[in-house]
Each structure stands twice: as C-alpha cells, then as structure tokens.
Amino acid sequence: MSIIRYRTPELAAWTPLDRLSPLRELLDSAYRLTGSAGLSAWSPVLDVYEDAETVTVTVEVAGMKKEDFDLSLEDGALTISGKREAKEENRESFRSERFFGIFTRTIALPAPVKSDGIKAAYEDGILTVTLQKADEAKPRKITVS
Amino acid sequence: MSQLTKTENRTADTKRVEYVVPAVNLHHDADGFTLEVEMPGVRKDGVEITFDEGKLTLTGHRAAPAVSGKAVYTESAGQAYRRVFDLDPTVDSENIGATIEQGLLTVRLPKAESSKPRKITVG
Fold first, then answer.
1. How many CB atoms lie within 10 A of CB B24?
2. Residue A93 to residue B25, Cβ atoms within 8 A
C-alpha cells in the first residue's frame, strides 16, 4: 500500500478523493502502455446502422485521403484503420488539437455479413462502409401451408 | 491571436441549441494565420462564417446522412459545429478565405499589409 501524502488543513476537503489516486495512477499507466505499443493513438467516432438487408458502419474522420484507409473483415468483426498525415511543419503552431498518425477501430457487426459485396465511400470527411447481410441473417417470411 | 473560445448555447429566441466544439489547429506564418477545423459531415453549403466586432464565428451544419436503416450503435453527436475566435487586430478581415475538403475547414486569415514587419532605413 502506498503512503498517502500529508495534506495541509485547508486542503482537507480533498482527502477522501486522494484515496483514489493510486487507482487513478494505475489506470493512467495502463493507458500509457497501450499508447506506447502503438495500438491506437486516437479513435475517430464510429456509428453502426442496420436494416433488413445491410449493415452500415460510418467513421467520422476529416481531412483524409481515400487511399489511406484500410478495411478488413474477419470472424464477423470489421476493422477500419488508416493514417492521417500532418501537413508540412515549417510554421509556428499556436494550437494543436487535431490528431495525426495511425488509428484503428474494430467493431463486432450486429449480424453475419457476406464477405463479398462490401462497399466503402469517403465523402465530406465520413467513411461509409456498407456490408450485405448473409442470407441466414435476413428476415424471412414463413407461410403456413 | 488570442484564442478565447466558447460554445454559444442559446439563440435569440432562447431556444436551446447545442453545438459540438470542433478540434482546431492554428498555425502562424509571416503572412498570416491558418485555422484547420474538423467538421466531418459538413459540405460547402453548410459552412457559415461570420465576422462581427472582432469575433470570428465558424458554424458547420451537417448534411443529412445518406445512410439507410436504424442506428444500432452511436458515438457521433450529430449536431452542428460551432466555434468562436477573437481575431487579432492585425488580421485583414476583408480578405479572409475559406475552403472545405473532406470535412476539414481551412480558414486563411491574412495579416493586413500595414501590420507586416517592415524594414526602416535611416535616411
């Protein structure tokens, strides 16, 4: 167990929170571990849509080139990765909130899909991947004979 | 350029409108400033840039998504983007230019000629 640092009396109100700090440090170190392994430096926002025939996955990532995306489908999981290049850096930067470099998102699809007939389009900064559902996943009407 | 930013949550009729605060990069060079604003889902006609009383307001309205089916998993906010900047007085507000490409809005803020560094020779 780690020793909790002495706090001056005017900071006493924070003492209950301070108990959590070893836990917070543990979580932070776990974060750093994944970051340094280069698994995923940043995660663009992802949405999934479903209708009777298709599953559609959209990823919001502005300012990419369409050839910089990589898609793969394995065991019902779709992986979307890519690399966003930073522009030339011979200028002074006042504010840097945008992320650059490699990202990877993997999502379990809500229904089995066909491995062929996958369509992907990149428009207005949104990558849209449309997958056709496998026949066994489509709703069927059964008539009573 | 001072970088005061805020989200304006109210319109004139006090109806509450929420905006997403987009991520921004701001660069500076000898001739001016360049703002890069991430607005995925926004087309050219959805961008609104206003300059009033030294404040540059960038608003991006999303185009209706062309996706069929119901959402089964959602991370995106789906709201319009807005960010307000206090402009440096050296910026030539008459010549602000902007382009949007793949959801990345680039705003060029050139410096006025009178505020560029000059060399003064002793006569």
1. 21
2. yes
